[in-house]
Predict the structure.
Amino acid sequence: MKSGHWRDWIDEQSGRLFIAPAVAVVLAFSIFPLGVSALLSVSRFSLQAGGVDLAFIGALNYRRLLLGSQQYHFLGTQGELPVWGGPVLALVVALFGAGFVRSMRGLPDARRWTAGSAGALGCLLAATLLAPLGPFQARAAALIEAADVPWFAWLGGVALSLVALALLLQRLAPGRIGIAGWCGRLLAATFTMVLAMLVIATGGRGGQPGSMLTTLFYVVGGTALQFALGLGLAMLCAQNIRGRDFFRLSFFLPLMVTPVGVAYTFRMLADMSVGPLAPLARWFGMGALTWAQDAWSARWVVLLSDAWQWTPFMFIVLLAAVEGQSREQVEAAQLDGASSWRVFRDITWPGIAPTAAALVLIRLIEGFKIVDLPNVLTNGGPGIATESMTLHAFIDWRTLNLGGSAAVAYMLLFVATVSTVSFFQFVVRPARGPR
Amino acid sequence: MTSTLSRSLWALAAATLSQQAAAQAKPFEGVTLNVMTFTGPQIAEPLQRRGKEFEAATGAKVNVITVPFSDLYQKLLTDWASGTNSIDAALFAPQWMPDYVTPGYLEDLSPRVAKDGKLKEDDIAPFFRDFSQKYSGKTYMVTLDGDFQMAYYRSDILQKLGKQPPQTWDDYLDIAKAAHGKDFGDGKPVAGSCIAKKRGAQSYWMITSVAGAFLQAKGTREGAFFDPATMKPLVNNDAFARALEIYKETTKYGPPNEINLDVGDTRNLFITGQCALTVDWGDIGPLAIDAKTSKVIDKVGALMLPGSRQVLDRASGKLVECNAQRCPHAVNGVNRAPFAAFGGWSGGINAKAKPKSKDAAYALISYLSQPEQSNVDVTIGATGFNPYRVSQFKDLTQWKKAGMSEKAAKDYLGAIQESLNSPNMVLDLRIPFNQRYQQVALDTALARYLAGEIDTKATMKTIEEAWNEITAEVGKAKQQAAYRASIGAQ
């Protein structure tokens, strides 16, 4: 009797039992390090006789990055407010307002507009309070000072008010979007507005973006460039041209090279005094071109070398997607006299859009980890101009500042998660079409 | 232990006399040594080459493990701190000793050195014997390389310009300006001055080389990084401002993309005849006579780092003119402060290694440093080893054998000796977390300064704040005691 009971229990639990080893492995190799690094990021690590000493220092490492001595490094240095600052911020707010309005289709217009603008303005307010740099920084700081509550209370307050706003929006616009959906949208909007303020704050004269914005430049700019080039090459190689296989192979080759190899190759290529392209550059009168001394040209060199390596990945997957679409449709359209742009827009693009969206998502996640290229090409210089967040963490780690390094890594985790989840929700899912 | 040691020494002696005798002895048969150093070719080259000889003589197997220089401190410390202990010994910077000795990772070599006759410790120049090998009175490392920075000039260019070798940094700038962009007969314009300014490389040593003469005048014990009396960083005053300005001005007369060049790049430029002046460790001397690569054979002069006629008044933070009282070591009114940057590659042994491995590791390090090997290695540019033994300055035969003219040898060795004998040598920062002070805080601020992100004032303020932050975090009293001990302040 008893053994039968036992057997039933085993049967009931079999699913969990089978999955247990996998869970254990994930816990050991993924969750455990994550936990340890979280602990490190709130501690000071030092080597002592006979072991290590971990002293709890609270959020000091994070505060240094966001508000303290490392702010210039992580967020950047605030310069004069540029003229394009106001319009850009207004555009971002309007964009999110319009987005909110769109996601409430089927409701009366007046309600949609009220809810949409309430959402966008709420996010703007939250972003103002959260952005340590930016056009409203002084006023926000005065407000924070006057209220005299600890910083974590502000963080909690902002989070709670976002949830409250989400509840309100859900009541105003009862529909397909739930509380979680609204919270996610509001978080994404707030984060984007904080970013916009950072761009405005550091983009003016005398301003300097920190490692976070530099990373986003590599990720967003790089992925866009790689996608455009990859798609172009894929469209060309899908044609029936002579030497097609040769082009396919040679376009694919850079992917096989290790990033450090790419970086050293590019360092040689980009050397304008002794590199192989130097005579050419001199001939064009650019012999004294010193890309490494200018912040933006150095960043572009990093971005281009990254593009050189990763365009083939885009190319090969997009080529497969382009070739996978049905020939009949294309041929029928061509017979009807459709221009090739029309064919691309109405047949090819909808066919490859889901693949393209997933592909960009993969590259976005990958792109956040960029470290070898700036490290080898410029060591993060000139100044800190080409330093990515991973390199920032690596440099801290190298000198055993494990706490500071872990804090940067956690900020990277946060930025990467919010960005990729937002991309997934706002781009990949719509691209897949309604289910 | 003693018997093993003497046996090993006997074996080494035998090895040099006869290959056969050594083949019979082999005291370390079966011992495998893992020795870590940085990705060469410098330092790793002699270690590998001499390691082979050592293997043949003693039977020990020497595995040389190399990592990039910027990772060396961390990799080694992690291996020893985590208890992995896969590395038995390492060649690294004596500057890092505080972080290695305090937790007890480095073996105290004092008894071994005392009994080691072949090492000829007395022959090692006092500066290295007292500062590079020892920490709080005990010997933890054996010097293999003599390191401090000097200035080099192209004697032919100076002659054509009708200029004298630079005595002060103003002279240096003057020559750099006059030579920059001119063609001195080989069809290519030279750069006036080549200094390694790449971020995350050697630039933080270069700035100290410039600043030293402005900051320190009363001898090593005065200190050039902190005021030993108050632990106030000496980075936010008129002297440091002047050094920053000079440093930045040299960029105007530098090769293109100088801020992306490390010392390997500037060395190459100098010995291929593309620079009129440079600041470097001793390596240029032997590299310049390497017929395979050098285009400046017998055209190179060396001298102690340039100095200054004005020095820092610590009370007011202003620059004041030198006088007998302020600059007791000045010559012709010029205060000079050679900088013992880095301190010279030295060998240390893991305190947790097996006893037999420690014996073998010590025998290997001693073998590398013994005059018979070292006197040859310091004359080879590729080794990265620079002279550090008294005999290496006195005896010119090895240098002439390596291809140096008598005049060049005397000039080069004279500059080294003059620096070594200077009572106003600036000691490199040797307190816990010195990496964070220099390689992170100073280096980053300097890179931002050169890139034009921040001005002189902001740079100084940034460095001062960052240094104070680290000091406060680690404990001011502790750091002050360590700093005072390192420079021998009373």
